[in-house]
Amino acid sequence: MKTFSFLAIVLVLGLTSCNNAAKENSETATAVASADTLVPESNDFIASYEGNINNKYEITMQLCKTGNNITGIYSYKNKGIDIELTGTISNDGKIEITEMTEGAFTGIFTGQLIDGTLSGQWSKADKSNSMPFSVKQTNIASMQNKSDVLSNAMGQYYLSSISGNVGANTMFDTYKKGDKWKSESSSNIGGTREGGDVGLNQKDRDMLDNMHIVVEDNLSIHFYAGLIELFNSPFKASGMDYRVKQTDKTKMNKKIAVLSPDTIRVNSSYILLADDKVSYKELLNSGNFDIVTEDNMILTYLPGNNTFELEIFWGECCDSNVLTFKKR
Asked: Is 90 in the same domain as 137?
C-alpha cells in the first residue's frame, strides 16, 4: 500500500460539480464525458447575493448556474456556517433550490431571478413555516471567462476535510467540526462494516491546520504544508496546468486519461492542474491516520461553493483521497 501510514485509518466525505455534495464514487468526479476543452454556455455564471429572509434574517448567497442546474451555498450573517444548495432554474428565471445541512434536506427556496434580484418564498423541508426572501446580486462572473471566475477566488483556503479509501475495504474521513478535528474509519470485516473514531495527537492537528492553498493576484495557485510549498501552478487562460508524463492514454488512470492540456472545465468544475507523478510522502508527515500522498494528482476549483479539491490517487488500485479546502 503506497500511502503514508499514520497508525489507524480514517472515513468518507466528498465532492460534487458545483456544490460540495458527497461522491459515492470519486472516479466519476473528473472522468465525465470526453474532457477536451469544454466550452461553457454563454449564460452560465457564478454570482454572489445579499439580502434577507422574512425581512429579518440577513443572509449571503453564492450561486453557480450551468445550463438549467444551479448549485451553491448560503449562510446567515450572524452564524457564518455554509449551507449547501442545489436545484434548477428555468429559462425564464424560475428557481427551485433545496438546502442541505449535514446531509439532511432542511429547506427549500422557490421564486424567480429577475434583473439580478432573486426573490420568492423559503420554507422548511416539509413546506411549513413559509417566509418571503429576497437577495440582490453583488457580484457576477461569466463561467465562460476563467480569469473572472478565479479572480473571485483570490485568497487563502485552508483544509476542511480529507476523505477517501485504502484498498478495496477501508474508507476514511478526517474533518473539522467547529474548531476541532475529528477522524473516523470503517473497514469491511467478515462481510460486516465496522468503524470508529481515530485519535489525533497534537502533531496530527498541527499538520491538518497548516495545509492550505493560496490564489495570488496573478491567479497562480500555491499549495503549502506549513511554510513549505508543495506546488506552484501558473494561471493558464486557455487550458490547464498539464504535467502528465505518460503519453499512452491506455496506461493512464482513467481520471487522468480524459484530460488534456486544453481542458478547462468538466461540468461545473474547473480542472486546474493534473500530474501523474507526485510524492508528498516526506512532507505530509504525521502519526495517527492514513493519507494518500503519492502518484496521480488533480486540482479542481468548484465555484458554486468556492472550494478547492485536491485529489491524490494511485494509478492502479485502489488508494485515493480528496482534500477539500475552504476559504477563510
From this structure: yes
